[in-house]
Amino acid sequence: MKLLSITIPCYNSEAYMEKCVDSLLAGGEDVEIIIVDDGSQDRTAEIADRYAADYPAIVKAVHQENGGHGAAVNTGIRNAEGLYFKVVDSDDWVKKEAYLQVLDILRELAGGAHALDMLVCNFVYEKEGEKRKKVMRYRHILPEGKLFTWEDCHHFAKGHYILMHSVIFRTRLLRECGLELPEHTFYVDNLYVFEPLPFVKNMYYLDVNLYRYYIGRGDQSVNEEVMISRIDQQIRVNKIMIDYFVDRKQDILKNKRLYQYMRNYLEIITTVSSVLLIRSDTEENLGKKAELWKYLKGKDKGLYIWLRHGIMGSTMNLPGRSGRRISVGGYKICQKIFKFN
């Protein structure tokens, strides 16, 4: 069995995927690299096959009809033979020194008395045109250098969450929790770092800057204009998260820290959906914002009240055009602080 399986979802990635794959080859034969060609129309499939031929003990190329990022991740999980599992997007890469440290820790913990469910590392925003890179660290939030549980976590500040770039999951946990990401839908990475959490018992935080998250291409899904054009997919993911949280609320409530974290993460996703709908400034999308909050209220009135009357919910629901300007202004401040979009 391999130590770590890494899935690279690829769609028309010929221009940048080689940098990603090359950074991962440094892990050697303890690592399995699964390149999922998601119905690409360029040379992605050819490049994937070349890597599989050149590194048959490390690289596996899988070709499928286009199903979107979620479908590619699902394929990776199904094909993974590693004890642990990570997703690395094809325009991102990893830092060699940190990567080797991560593998050392996974080797050390793999045979322990308690199964490691989730490893967390830092990630770096590689934002085009910015010399100073924003590093998302978890020191002072997560204990370092030991296995810990949700009870050992400290408070997560607003805008500081465990994202797909941060995590390595135990592969069997992803299968046992029944994770199946929706196809032809963007922003499913939010589900990837949300639905498995009630199944996560033991965690480990390694304070190294592993993942380099590239932001700068105009067609990226996190580009604000692109997000507004795909707002229905953002809303779909938001509603799936609401359903999941509400349906499992009683089990999640058994762990106070877990409940607080998942509720706060749902709050930030609902805020992002709301501000994008406001930012689009169309009657249709303002109606979709009202419908989203109505949907939440219908699913769980108590949760609705908490989200609606918190600082973020109140700001996102200020009346009139002037209220919407204040909402957008608050969003822009958050952009500068947290360096997203």
Task: Describe the protein's architecture and organization.
Helix content is 47%, strand content 18%. It has 341 residues and is α/β, with parallel strands linked by helices. Strands 1, 2, 3, 4, 5, 6, 7, 8 and 9 form a nine-stranded mixed sheet that branches. Strand 6 (118-127) and strand 7 (134-136) form a beta hairpin. Helix 8 packs parallel to helix 11 and helix 10 (256-280) packs antiparallel against helix 11. The radius of gyration is 20 Å and the shape is globular. The protein starts with a strand and ends with a helix. The model is unreliable at 337-341 (pLDDT under 50).
Blueprint of the fold:
Elements: E1 2-10, H1 17-25, E2 31-38, H2 44-54, E3 59-64, H3 68-79, E4 82-87, E5 93-94, H4 96-110, E6 118-127, E7 134-136, E8 167-170, H5 171-176, H6 189-192, E9 203-215, H7 224-229, H8 231-247, H9 249-252, H10 256-280, H11 283-299, H12 301-308, H13 311-316, H14 320-338
Parallel strand pairs: 1-2, 1-4, 2-3, 6-9
Antiparallel strand pairs: 4-8, 5-9, 6-7, 6-8
Helix pairs in contact: 8-10, 8-11, 10-11, 11-12
